[in-house]
Write a structure and sequence with these properties.
This protein is an alpha/beta fold and 533 residues long. 44% of the residues lie in helices and 10% in strands. The chain has a domain of 157 residues: Glycogen Phosphorylase B (Rossmann fold).
C-alpha cells in the first residue's frame, strides 16, 4: 500500500534480500559451498570484545563446516594476540597498530584528496564528528571531557584507518564483512571500506531491551544505520496479502509488550546494574586501573584515549549541572495542552544521534527549529533523557524554555505520548512506543524502522512544518483508515526479522548460524522468499 504513504515520508532504496544498496550479490558460492570469505572486525573495547569476536569467528568456521574462510582484523595488536590464542582456526589479519608502526606516513594532502574523490558518497568530516573522543557534536559544552585535536591529527587518523582496511580488504577479497554497529570511528570507517570493496555488510545490531515473551534477540543490518533487509522484505511481503489472525494476534501482543515496556527495569534485569549512570564517573570503582590503562594508550592508535584533566573537570561539572538543572526539567505530572507534539531528547553522546542523526546531534538547535515549525496554537513538549541529566548545561534548558510554545515535562514518556498528537524523534525507540500507541511518528534521522508507511520522513524543515500542519490541523493521520494495518504489519515484520539469540559470547554458535543464514538469504531469492527466524 505504498501509494497511501504520507506525502512527506521519503521512501528509501530498500534492497531485496539479494543485496543491500550498493552491494552486488556475491557469486562466490553459498554458505554451504566453497569460496565464502568473511572478515570480522574487532575495533575497540579490550579483552571482552576480543573474546566476543574470537568466539563469533570460531563459531563461523564451525558452522560453515570449514567451507567458510574467516579472518579477523583488530585495532590493537594485543587484541589480535588474544584472538590468535582463543581461535587458532581463524586467520588474524595485520592489526591497525602494527600497520601504523611499519608503514611510512603518506602524503597527507594527496591522501585526503584521494579519499574525497574515491569515496564520493562519503562525508568524512561527518564521520569524524561522530567520534565522541575529540569532537563535541552533541553540544554538551565540556560535559563529556573530550580532547581537542588538530585538523592534521584527525585527517591522519582517518587516512591511516582507511589505508589499513583497504589493504586488508584488497588481500582478502572478502564476500562479507561482520561488524557491530558503527559506534566507534574504526567501525564507522569499516562500513565505508567494506562497501567500496563490494563486501556484504552483516551488522550485528542489538535488540536487548524490548523482548518478545522475554526472549533475547538481535538483528543483522546492512548499513551503519542498522537498516535490516529481512525486516523490510517481510514488510513488503506482508503488504501483498491480508494478515492471518495468528499473525495479527502476535503483532498485537507484542505491541502491548511495547506499551508496557519500562527501560529502567529491563536494563537492570539484563545488565545487572542501574540504568542511570553516576554523575561523577561510571568507572569510579576501578578508577586507578582505568587511569593506568589510559596512560599506556597511544592516541594515534587508540584514538579514544582520554584527556584526564578535561575528563575530571567534566565529571565534577556533571554533578553540578545535575543539581542545577533539576528544577528546569518540568513537572512529573503530565499536564499536556491540547494539540501538543512530543520531542523526547535522546541520550548523548551515542551512535543513535552521532551516526543516525549526525546533522541533528545538536538537540538545542533541533528543539528551536521544532518550535518554529509548529502550527500556531500548538505546543512542543520536551523531556530530557533520564540518563542525560547533568551532561547538558542548565542554561540550555532555560534557553529552550524561553520559547513561548516549548514546555518541559518529566512525566513517564508513554504518558506524555498518550496525551500528545504526534511524536518527533531523531532515531529513538520512543518511535516504536509511539507506533504501538497509535500516534504519528516523524523521524528526522536514519534508523531501522524509518521505512514503515506509518512513519513521516520530511526532507527539510519546511516539509516538517507541512507534515505537522497536516497531522495537527488537517487531521490527516486520524483520518487514515489504513494506519492500523500498517502498524500491525510493521511489528510482525520486526519480530520475524529477529535472530532469537543473545548477542553474546555464550551464544556464539547461534549468532554464527544467523549470520550464515542471512548471507545465504541475501544471495538466494528462493531462500529469501521463505526466510524468517
Amino acid at each position: 500500500m505504498a501509494e497511501a504513504r504520507p506525502l512527506t515520508s521519503v521512501p528509501i532504496d530498500v534492497p531485496a534480500l539479494g543485496a543491500a544498496p550498493g552491494h552486488p550479490a556475491s557469486t562466490t558460492g553459498g554458505a554451504d559451498g566453497p569460496g565464502d570469505r568473511l572478515l570480522v572486525l574487532c575495533p575497540q573495547g579490550g579483552r571482552p570484545e576480543a573474546e566476543f569476536n574470537a568466539a563469533i569467528a570460531a563459531a563461523l568456521v564451525k558452522a560453515g563446516a570449514r567451507r567458510v574462510d574467516v579472518s579477523v582484523v583488530c585495532l590493537r595488536e594485543s587484541d589480535a594476540e588474544t584472538i590468535r590464542a582463543l581461535a587458532p582456526a581463524v586467520h588474524v589479519a595485520e592489526s591497525f597498530e602494527r600497520f601504523h608502526d611499519r608503514t611510512p606516513a603518506p602524503d597527507l594532502a594527496a591522501e585526503t584528496l584521494r579519499l574525497a574523490r574515491d569515496y564520493a558518497d562519503v562525508n568524512w568530516w561527518a564521520i569524524a564528528a561522530a567520534e565522541r573522543s575529540f569532537v563535541d557534536s552533541s553540544f554538551l559544552i565540556g560535559g563529556l571531557g573530550q580532547r581537542s585535536e588538530s585538523q592534521e591529527y584527525v585527517e591522519a587518523l582517518i587516512v591511516g584507518l582507511v589505508r589499513h582496511l583497504e589493504a586488508v580488504f584488497s588481500e582478502g577479497r572478502y564476500s562479507a564483512a561482520v561488524c557491530q554497529a558503527a559506534d566507534s570511528l574504526m567501525s564507522y570507517i569499516f562500513h565505508q571500506v567494506a562497501r567500496r570493496f563490494a563486501a556484504q555488510l552483516l551488522v550485528l545490531s542489538p535488540n536487548a531491551w524490548i523482548r518478545e515473551d522475554g526472549k533475547p534477540g538481535f538483528y543483522i543490518g546492512y548499513d551503519e544505520f542498522m537498516h535490516n533487509a529481512r525486516m523490510e522484505a517481510h514488510y513488503r511481503e506482508l503488504g501483498h496479502r491480508p494478515l492471518r489472525e495468528d499473525e495479527r494476534q502476535r503483532s498485537r501482543r507484542f505491541q502491548q509488550t511495547v506499551r508496557d515496556f519500562e527501560i529502567t527495569r529491563a536494563f537492570r534485569s539484563i545488565m545487572n546494574r542501574p540504568f542511570i549512570v553516576p554523575a561523577v564517573s561510571p568507572n569510579l570503582r576501578r578508577l586507578w586501573t582505568y587511569l593506568h590503562e589510559n596512560t599506556a594508550r597511544r592516541k594515534e592508535i587508540e584514538y579514544y584515549k582520554i584527556d584526564v584533566a578535561a575528563k575530571a573537570r567534566a565529571n565534577m561539572l556533571r554533578v553540578w549541572r545535575r543539581w542545577r538543572s533539576r528544577r528546569l526539567l518540568g513537572s512529573s505530572v503530565p499536564a499536556i495542552p491540547p494539540r501538543s507534539v512530543f520531542y523526547p531528547m535522546q541520550y548523548q553522546p551515542e551512535q543513535t544521534t552521532l551516526v543516525g542523526g549526525i546533522y541533528f546531534a545538536n538537540q538545542v538547535a533541533l528543539v528551536e527549529n521544532l518550535a518554529k515549525a509548529l502550527p500556531f496554537g500548538c505546543t512542543l513538549v520536551v523531556k530530557e533523557h533520564p540518563r542525560g541529566r547533568g551532561a547538558r548545561a542548565a542554561w540550555q534548558y532555560r534557553h529552550l524554555a524561553h520559547f513561548p510554545n516549548v514546555r518541559f515535562c518529566d512525566a513517564d514518556a508513554k504518558e506524555i505520548i498518550r496525551r500528545c498528537e504526534a511524536v518527533v524523534t531523531i532515531t529513538s525507540t520512543v518511535g516504536l512506543e509511539a507506533m504501538a500507541l497509535d500516534r504519528p511518528v516523524i523521524v528526522l534521522g536514519n534508523c531501522y524502522y524509518d521505512f514503515a508507511d506509518v512513519v513521516y520522513r520530511p526532507k527539510n524543515w519546511p516539509e516538517l512544518a507541512q507534515a505537522l500542519k497536516r497531522i495537527l490541523i488537517d487531521g490527516e493521520y486520524r483520518s487514515n483508515a489504513a494506519r492500523g494495518e500498517w502498524i500491525d504489519r510493521f511489528f510482525l515484520a520486526y519480530l520475524r526479522a529477529r535472530v532469537p539469540a543473545a548477542l553474546s559470547r555464550d551464544s556464539a554458535d547461534a549468532v554464527a548460524e544467523g549470520l550464515l543464514a542471512e548471507l545465504e538469504a541475501r544471495r538466494n531469492p528462493a531462500v529469501a522468499a521463505a526466510a524468517q527466524y
